């Protein structure tokens, strides 16, 4: 098991870059004061990792939140993603420039291909490799890539993705994909760890929360980390941002980790990477 110590702990990517294993997701956080506050509160609470995307339409607010926080820029791991209709070599480079302008940053810590757009993601990846070589990005990766997408991408690339950000929760563990990523030193990362809120009404999780004297969210996020999966729960509420990160004073017993693994039913709450039309 990877070492989990505290909120500022990191997992090391295959190029040696240290990526904080716990971060703030800002999907659906409104641009402007809402996302600015969320970023500032998270950094104040000790978070050192913020995950956005061009399609979230809040990069500007994320950049402002980082600027307005007293923490030095180099201590904050900032992630964004290229959207589907910007994919392709030249258009990805343009999209990256536009993101950087909105974020008002000199470099990005991690840039991801948001979805595996058929016929385009290889050219998109070449653009990411170029950005990486130019040191405008410290790490590059993908999001929503299944094993066959990764295998296809990895034929003929110079750089293997450093990260794969996937829908990940007890109903969608995809252990084979996890194992594949681990074998190729691709760091796995979770989105939608709470099953879009469905997790909160389920008795199984209520029992586990009671057992550990923690909230359901805290139990699930702890499970993510114990699986070696980076997690970025989203919230724009200060108390939730603080509570989500309060997971470093307990550990799930191995049998409970296995029990949560065993709940896997291949059920998605988000789009299917093999069948999306956006």
CATH superfamily: NADP-dependent oxidoreductase domain
CATH C-level label? Alpha Beta
Overall average residue pLDDT = 97
If you consult CATH, what is the topology? Answer: TIM Barrel
Principal-axis shape equals: globular
Helix run count? 10
End-to-end distance: 37 Å
Read across the widest sheet, the strand sequence of neighbours is 3-4-5-6-7-8-9-10
The H/E string reads EEEHEHEHEHEHEHEHHEHH
> Main beta sheet: strand number and arrangement?
8 strands, parallel
CATH architecture: Alpha-Beta Barrel
Coarse structural class? alpha/beta
Cα-atom radius of gyration: 18 Å
Number of strands: 10
| Low-confidence regions | none
The helix fraction, in percent, is: 25-40%
- The structural domain count equals 1
Could you tell me the strand content as a percent range? 5-15%
Describe the SSE topology:
Elements (H helix, E strand, L loop, with lengths): L9 E3 L5 E3 L3 E2 L7 H13 L3 E3 L7 H9 L9 E6 L6 H15 L6 E4 L7 H13 L6 E4 L3 H8 L8 E5 L7 H9 L3 E5 L11 H10 L3 H11 L3 E2 L6 H7 L9 H8 L17
Parallel strand pairs: 3-4, 4-5, 5-6, 6-7, 7-8, 8-9, 9-10
Antiparallel strand pairs: 1-2
